[in-house]
Specification:
With 122 residues, this protein is mainly alpha-helical. The protein has one domain. The protein is built from six helices and no strands. The relative contact order is 0.23.
Length: 122
């Protein structure tokens, strides 16, 4: 069940599941970089764990289950805990995570993702 219809641009430049996996790896690397600087930060630790779960759930071209997709709250945590951070990497993480989480939650077919990505075909 979809909770909302995605709007053009919500996936940023993620126009396919393959591109999603690339962006997910980049966002996870950034989250781990931030967490390494502040290892006790519970928000960053939760975000990193959820990104790792997303990576496992989509490895080897696997489709995540609806339960797995609905169990991710990293975007909400980022808004609540990271938004407005003066740390440049944390601010980048906050900016980058939302498209990845939205794509994962929706898990669109490549044709839909291509139409909704920034610069995508419509």
């Amino acid at each position: 069940m979809k909770y909302w219809d995605p709007k053009p641009g919500e996936y940023a430049d993620i126009d396919s599941r393959a591109k999603f996996r690339v962006r997910l790896a980049e966002v996870l690397a950034l989250a781990n970089k931030c967490l390494a600087r502040t290892p006790g930060d519970p928000a960053l630790a939760s975000i990193a764990r959820q990104l790792e779960a997303m990576t496992r759930n989509t490895a080897n071209d696997r489709d995540p289950t609806e339960t797995e997709r609905r169990g991710i709250s990293a975007g909400v945590i980022a808004v609540r805990e990271l938004r407005g951070s003066p740390d440049n990497d944390v601010a980048k993480l906050d900016d980058a995570i939302h498209a990845v989480v939205t794509f994962y939650s929706d898990w669109p077919e490549d044709s839909v993702a291509a139409a909704l990505a920034v610069g995508g075909r419509q």
